[in-house]
Amino acid sequence: MQIHSNPSKSIKNLKYFMSTFIINGGRKLTGSVKISGAKNAATPILAATLLTRQVCTIKRVPRIKDVEKMLAILASLGASVKWTGPDTVRVDTSKTSTKSLNTGLVKSMRSSILLLGPMLALFKQVSTTEPGGDIIGRRPIDTHLDAFAQLGVTTSLRGERFILRGEKLKSAMVTLKEFSVTASENAIMAAVLLSGITTIKMAANEPHVQDLISFLNKAGAKISWLDSHTIKIKGVKKLHGTTHTVIPDQIEIGTLAVAAGLTKGKIRMKPVVPEHLESIVLKLKQIGFKINLGKDYMVVDGSGPLKAFKFQSLPYPGLPTDLQAPFTVLATACKGESLIHDPMYEGRLGHVSQLVKMGAQATICDPHRVIVNGPKRLNGREFPSLDIRAGATMVLAGLAARGTTTIHQAEIVERGYENFEGRLRKLGAKIKKVDD
Questions:
Q1: Whether residue 216 is found in the same domain as residue 348
Q2: Among residues 125, 76, 124, 71, which one has the least CA distance to residue 96?
């Protein structure tokens, strides 16, 4: 997809093409890097602008493909969307009206599901297909539909399209089936304009959920936390336009920290929110990294000896599942036997076989666990990007490997990382992107 060089240019003229990363490894990464806004915060906040029916200005928005697709969907619904700066987007949703989501765009991006809550709240009906995105195991939308049902929504299937009807939407006590981030966000957005009190139990409290709530409260919502996983929503009649700055991306921070360890480098990252990084910083220190964490910056020094570790992804404040793959390649540089456990998804270990082909000593125990023995020097190979995080992980592997590593479908990685190769190159990496 072509990202417009002119910030004020319309978002509707999206172009798609294939590209490839070519990496010559063995270079130490050093220097400073600016951290982008969090993808997982930007997409729900952009979806939530629908609820205001006014103009919202969102800052620190990452210029990545998933964001561009979300903006394209908003435009297809009648919103006026314009980049007004390098990372600032103006969204006017005063003229949105359609009740049907664009099938092609929905099938290309998992986070398109975040539009269901706002559209139900506004139009009381929405027609959509099941969202697409990365293939990382079964990610059904049952938890979303169950949460909507508790709010009074009925769902029917017409061919491959889901028809959700919300004429009987009402405030309620909602208990989610699992700690689902996007289901929590959808339930919040569906309930924010309902009269009365809605309580959501088993709600995810990841930083991006907190950021969505912060945006909605700025727009006039009345949302509060009763405890770490229970949300209280006092319905309001309407929201208003506002300005909001997206939080820094903790996944990008963790990914770059791994790059420092794999290349024995030292990277300064800014901005950061220290409280969002507690589990990540603790794990990095246990592995052997030296960390200097300031009020809004973090310096990661991976030049020392690194030791084996256990990584288990858990709901926040635990380690995020999106860092499972990067930490798997990090384990190849650590002395001893590391255990990587991702209980959330059963199909998110495809990168392991790619690492083995590069020389890693890794064994998949079951669909959720892998054991890695290190340190093992990796050798450059040629691979496709399997998903956003697996593709980024193979770029990291290429940075550490001998010789040349070629990663096809680089556009998949670019769905989640802004100007990935450019910023790695600024840190000293020898990497280039070639359009196929």
A1: no
A2: 76
Q: What whole-number distance in Å separates Cα of residue 262 and Cα of residue 376?
A: 11
CA dihedral for 155, 158, 161, 165, sign (positive or negative):
negative
Name the amino acid, one letter, at 29.
L
Would you name the residues annotated as active-site residues? 134
Structure tokens at 149: 């049902």
pLDDT digits (tens, 9 = 90+) for 97-145: 877 787 778 877 878 899 999 999 999 999 888 776 444 444 468 999 9
For residue 158, give its domain range.
Answer: 39-245
CA–CA distance from 111 to each of 35, 98, 368 (Å)? 21, 19, 23
CATH of the domain at 172: 3.65.10.10
**Average pLDDT of the segment spanning 154-166:** 90
Assess whether the previous peptide bond of 62 is cis (omega < 30° from 0).
no
What is the DSSP code (8-state) at residue 319? B
Residue 313 lies in a domain: yes
How do residues 386-398 score in pLDDT, each as one tens digit?
A: 999 999 999 999 9
User: Which domain-ending residue is among 245, 261, 294?
Assistant: 245
For residue 295, with 0-12 CB atoms within 10 Å meaning exposed, 13-18 middle and 19 or more buried, which class applies? exposed
User: Do residue 342 and residue 233 come from a single domain?
Assistant: no
Provide CB contacts within 8 A for 44, sequence distance 6+.
111, 114, 182, 185, 189, 208, 212
Q: Within a domain: residue 197?
A: yes
Residues 6 or more apart in contact with residue 140 via CB below 8 angstroms: none
Q: Which residues contact 363 (CB under 8 A, 6 or more apart)?
A: 370, 371
Quick one: which of 239, 244, 219, 220 has its CA closest to 57? 244
Q: Starting at the edge strand that comes first in sequence, how are the strands of the sheet with 310-312 ordered?
A: 310-312, 336-341, 369-374, 361-366
